[in-house]
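Quality-control log, excerpt.
Job 1 of 2 completed; input and output follow.
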Amino acid sequence: MVRLGWAGSPQSIEVRFGTSQAGAVDVALHTTASVDAVPADHPKVDWEQPRAVEKGRRSPLAALRPDSAPAPA
């Protein structure tokens, strides 16, 4: 949903994982309000499909492109 521009990330934090050789990584923080608003903002999406995806399977949302994503009504 971030890639589609549907849920922005207003801020991020730097996180270090123990003694990782990779150092620190930035982790995006999303508000629950912005995530909760996505289905209402995009009513043309059949939200039952992504909710029914089994563990380890790719979401049908992954096939959408930002320019072909259903526009809000």
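Job 2 of 2 completed; input and output follow.
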Amino acid sequence: MGRSCKGTSLLFLVAALCLYHVTKGYEETLEDSGLQLAGRSLLEKELPNGTFSVFSALHDPKSGEARIYAEVHPDTVCYSVAACQFSVRGENRETIRVKARAEVPFAVLSDKPQLRECFIFCNLPGPGSDLEEVAIEDADGEAMVTWPVEEVERLPKGQAKGVGMCVGPIFSETPTFLDWLQYYADLGVDGIHMYATVAEFILHRDDYMHMPGSRRSVQFQSHHLITWRAFHPSRWSQHYYGQWLIFNDCVFRTRNIFEFVMFHDRDEFVHIVGMDKPRQVKLKQFFEKQFGAPDVASVVYWGGLYKIHCHMVKVGKIGSGGLAHGEVDYQAFQGYDVWTTDPRTPNFTGCNWRNCHPKSVVRPLAVDIMSVHHVGRIREGFIQGDPKLLPPEVVFIKHLRCSIRVNTSDWETDLSKSLCSVEDIVKPDNRFGGVPVCPLHEIEAVRNSSLTEKLPA
């Protein structure tokens, strides 16, 4: 079942599968660390036993650690991994075989067959090796799968570490993308790793266990801060479009280039209380102060769900050489500016560090396994226990949510219509997206009983 797949062929496949977009005259480079071919085409009705689909195989030559992130079925495939045999670049074709530690780190979501995340940890005898590929072996020494090894990024000598971001899954352009990008550039973010999920079934309603992330094709846009990577989930991928694979791949890749890594979505704007403009913030210095000590692995803060009016506009797609290739629907804010002070303040009463849609900032070198909203497991030498919670008097997230009628493309354009329901105000549900933050006049209308007749029986 072993398969070796080179980067050039992967890049070609991404180009064929993705709607490749160029803006401002710059050509994109799109890095694909996606599933092997078998994993991409699991569209049949039965999930084959013995499936082993590698997402990425990463090596940190500075520490000698290697990680393989994969999806398997059944989970016994993961537990049967015994060793990693690495081939070293060079004419001698030297190999290094080390013992593997394999885990299925996350719980199953349903009883039906699903691909499960399989994380494989392999530590080399020492740093410095230049690895070409890895053969994952079982206890009998048989190769289960072979995969090219990527070296994690390193900074040029003498260059200071800073603040990075891991963002995914990305489905398509959203109204906040360009504003969001400039906002974090102004804050002082030094690099953004964005993971696009590309699969035809994402654009349609079907029997996939998650709602479609978007019904528009993904658009890749160039910016010097962004590193794009593509993930090709199968219908059998269990957790939200590969989010666990994406976040763990990203935090390991960035361990030697950023002191801090933020995990935010593209509609989330971190708000540092008392700072009205992003350029007033020196983000690295802010996090150094909030972490407080070098052995603190992560901090978390809550999110307020800021509903806003939006509308759809048509934007021409730009192809190579500036040629137009039709139009794409683009979601735009209606009467909202992310740089203008929003007087609404979330009420985080009753929140704890696990709920109210928290998001994390981590020291990447401290992370052994990354969950979505917090670190799943930290490395030895860092503080154990709950992540450090930053109070909303210091920082919180403004999570912008366009007012939309569910499951349609009929975006709200009437600025006089209510952004919040009575239920949002009287019985807020903070499980999905954060604490609803309603306009003050709508809250007052409910308090004055003018809208209470709309409450459910």
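Post-run check on job 2. Confidence is low (pLDDT under 50) at residues 1-44.
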